[in-house]
Design a protein that fits this description.
Layout: E1 8-21, E2 24-37, E3 41-45, H1 52-59, E4 68-76, E5 79-80, H2 86-95, E6 97-100, H3 104-107, H4 114-125, H5 130-143, H6 149-153, H7 162-174, E7 180-184, H8 192-209, E8 212-217, H9 220-226, E9 229-234, E10 237-243, H10 244-249, H11 254-261, E11 310-313, E12 316-319, H12 324-335
Parallel strand pairs: 3-8, 3-9, 6-7, 7-8
Antiparallel strand pairs: 1-2, 1-4, 4-5, 9-10, 10-12, 11-12
Bound molecules: adenosine-5'-triphosphate (ATP).
Adenosine-5'-triphosphate (ATP) is lined by residues 19, 21, 28, 46, 48-54, 67, 218, 283-284.
């Protein structure tokens, strides 16, 4: 899977994002750090409102600079990119980093065929003839698994199914051979079978093109299937991180336990455990000073009112007061025994 020596492509250090609102300045992302190496799939997982999209948009320079305050550092291939002029950021976004959003319709215009749109995207970044770009567009549509790529190229977005549209958007994202694909809930709008196909496609692209992928999702099942490493985000912070294997074998944070308990089974009815995490995440306006999860955590202690300590082991960490000796019995209350790791 990941080569440990692959170079760091994207490095995010101490990223904090706050917004100017009617009620003053509120923090949505608080001291987030992570890096992505070439060719790896990093998942950022958390419920709606945990700060995943705000993190991404800030990295890509897509926030409204009039109301958004971004601190910290972001480097891409060793070059600082936070605060670069819009023109430079646009070049990086189109060529080196491509964004695949939740709703393919936001990336496509309804008035042109998808072949035309992909070809235009290619021509924006490459000196290539119109006919050459059109041919390349059809090749890309074949690459992302569209059965009749030449015919699909001649269709308008509304003439394609949701799954085909998302494949077309992925083809467009690939058109400049980006080193990093950022996929924000790419399968949320799709039905389960098509979801699995699109995830397979992302894994194939990593293999064939060597692209690194940041996958934003709220679904731990998706994480287990495709990611090499995981950042679990809650209330604007990364509250647990590690390799996918370690994190699922031995999750440390009660929020991660709840997310894992919420994975629906492949067959049979959805479990009652979907309600494993009662309550709602805080908003930036209601963010507690200490552990953001404490108000929903059945294991919370008075000291959770202060910022939680970082627990570490090689290649992983979690922000929680629960120490190694207390972890297994508490986790078993939510997940049952987890074998040796527990
Ligand atoms: N411009 C803004 N002004 C004020 N608050 C904002 C602004 N943009 C986002 N937020 C808030 O920041 C928090 C984090 O939002 P974000 O969209 O990053 O969450 P998310 O984890 O990506 O959720 P989702 O899965 O729903 O996209 C939310 O509470 C959101 O309401």
């Amino acid at each position: 899977m990941t080569t440990p020596l692959a170079p760091v492509l994207l490095d995010v250090a101490g990223l904090s994002v706050s917004f100017a609102t009617d009620r003053g300045r509120v923090t949505a992302v608080d001291d987030v750090s992570f890096s992505v190496r070439s060719g790896e799939i990093l998942a950022i997982v958390g419920e709606s409102g945990s700060g995943k999209t705000v993190t991404l948009m800030s990295i890509l320079g897509l926030n409204d600079p009039r109301t958004t305050f971004v601190d910290g550092s972001v480097t891409f291939r060793g070059r600082p990119i936070l605060g670069l002029p819009d023109r430079d950021l646009r070049r990086i976004r189109g060529k080196d980093i491509a964004l695949i959003s939740q709703d393919p319709m936001t990336a496509l215009t309804p008035v042109h065929t998808i072949g035309w749109q992909i070809a235009e995207q290619i021509r924006a970044h490459e000196a290539i003839s119109r006919a050459g770009a059109a041919r390349r567009a059809v090749e890309l549509l074949a690459e992302v698994g569209l059965a009749n790529p030449a015919e699909a190229a001649g269709r308008y977005p509304h003439q394609l199914s949701g799954g085909m549209r998302q494949r077309a958007v992925i083809a467009m994202a690939l058109s400049c051979n980006p080193a990093l694909l950022v996929a924000d809930e790419p399968t949320t709008a799709l039905d389960v079978t098509v979801q699995a196909q699109v995830l397979d496609l992302l894994m194939k692209l990593r293999k064939d093109f060597g692209s690194a992928i940041i996958l934003i999702t709220h679904d731990m099942g998706v994480v287990a299937e495709v990611a090499d490493r995981v950042n679990v985000m809650y209330a604007g912070r990364i509250i647990e991180r590690g390799t996918t294997e370690r994190l699922f074998a031995d999750p440390w944070h009660p929020y991660t336990w709840g997310l894992i308990a919420s994975i629906p089974p492949l067959d049979g009815p959805r479990p009652h455990r979907l309600a494993a995490i009662p309550g709602m995440p805080p908003t930036p306006e209601t963010m507690p000073a200490g552990c953001g999860f404490a108000p929903r955590c059945r294991f919370a202690l008075p000291r959770c009112a202060a910022r939680p300590p970082v627990q570490r082991a090689p290649g992983r960490s979690a922000l929680c007061v629960i120490g190694p000796e207390d972890r297994a019995p508490r986790r078993a209350e939510i997940l049952g025994p987890l074998g040796d790791a527990a």
